[in-house]
Amino acid sequence: MTDTKIAGKPRARVLVVDDEASARSGLEKLLRQEGYAVDAAADGPSALQIAAERPPDVVVTDLKMPRMDGLELLQKLRATYPGVPVIMVTAFGEVSTAVQAMRGGADDFITKPVDFDALAFSIERVIERTNLKAEAEELRRQLREREGEGFEGLIGSSPALQKVYRVAKQVAPARATVLITGESGTGKGELARAIHKKSPRANGPFITLHCAALAESLLESELFGHERGAFTGADKRRVGRFEQANGGTLFLDEVGEIPPATQVKLLRVLQERTFERVGGNDPVEVDVRLIAATNRDLAKDVHDGRFREDLYYRLHVVHVEMPPLRLRGGDVLLLAMHFLRRFAVENKKRIDGVTDRARAKLLAHRWPGNVRELENAIERAVVLCEGPQIDEDDLPIDVAPLPKGGVRIPGATMAEIERFAILSTLDATNGSTAKAAEMLDISVRTIQYRLHEYGVAAKEKEKKGAG
């Protein structure tokens, strides 16, 4: 046996559950001799009560017991203590049931009569496995922080997100205004916070304001504050978001929704770093780094007269586009596992991963709601999941059937696969040959040549001619 104690402390707390008093007391005595802290229970309900008072590191339970058998106890433990390993003790004739228990989440099983050395080895092994999982999660977090693998906790290693990381790391130390664009749910707010954390202003405040959520009169007061008596109900001076963010970063989400009159005042702050509160005349000077985000096409809004051109260029000093989830490939699975681990802990469930069918479903979905939709889908799947892994039926998403012209692998030629890859990527990038070429790691010229081969450009000309 290995050394039983470290610095005089018990190695771990083991909960022994067995309705036979002699077997229960025997295991309890032997485990204590090995340096474990031991609790013992005669049945499942008593075991759950003890676990609630003194959470165990390992549970060793008999399979056949009155009131509540080992399988039912296993299910209840998994629901409340998802990370606690369970070892099932079973008679030789019950091995098939023990295998069922393993499928239900048990970590190991030992046959009767119990070989104590085998049990001690099993306990050590499941504790080590649990510790390794915790260490692996910490390593995954650290890897995301390393160069090329992540940026201040943002998750993803796809080429599309690597490009975001590179720009974000370059701009973080500067004072320059950053404009983050992208579809709703892509993580623009998370990127803004990450840039702040990597900046010299990291110890200063990070203040956020969702510009689309407020009426024009309230938005101006929220941004710049107001003096007492500035309007009905203004019974005292109020400090606005710019003053709150002094020495730090102000993040304006959905900046494209700011009305024209407020755009003028925002432009002045960016140019002069000064403003007046609503109803006031005294200038207020601030030192604020501004990060703005929008899901609108601001360049088009400028062209259409809905957004000031001078403000657009003030915001557009550094531009970062957050890619939609459908263009991030395997990041879908990385994010899914991140959300799975988080929601499993929150819901006190033990879920080890996703099945191959669920994985295929996750990769096949286009995710119009992006990361936010994926997060919600995984949370629902964790709540509904009854086994150790999320299956396709647990996922609340509908995957579109294979599109017309799609390919089956195996069964398609390389030319057919190439055609499908190019046309599907162009569709996902809204027809941008430059973005499609970057994703596919080929030249724009190659895409244009292939489109000519496919007759796509000719068809477009026919449509225009027919109009």
Automatic annotation (TrEMBL):
Sorted UniProt keywords: ATP-binding, DNA-binding, Nucleotide-binding, Phosphoprotein, Transcription, Transcription regulation
Record domain Response regulatory: where: 13-127
Stored Pfam families: AAA_lid_14 (PF25601), HTH_8 (PF02954), Response_reg (PF00072), Sigma54_activat (PF00158)
Residues annotated as domain Sigma-54 factor interaction: 154-383
UniProt modified residues of type 4-aspartylphosphate: 62
Cited CDD domains: AAA
UniProt-listed PANTHER family: TRANSCRIPTIONAL REGULATORY PROTEIN (PTHR32071), TRANSCRIPTIONAL REGULATORY PROTEIN FLGR (PTHR32071:SF21)
Protein name: Sigma-54 dependent transcriptional regulator
Organism, scientific name: Polyangium mundeleinium
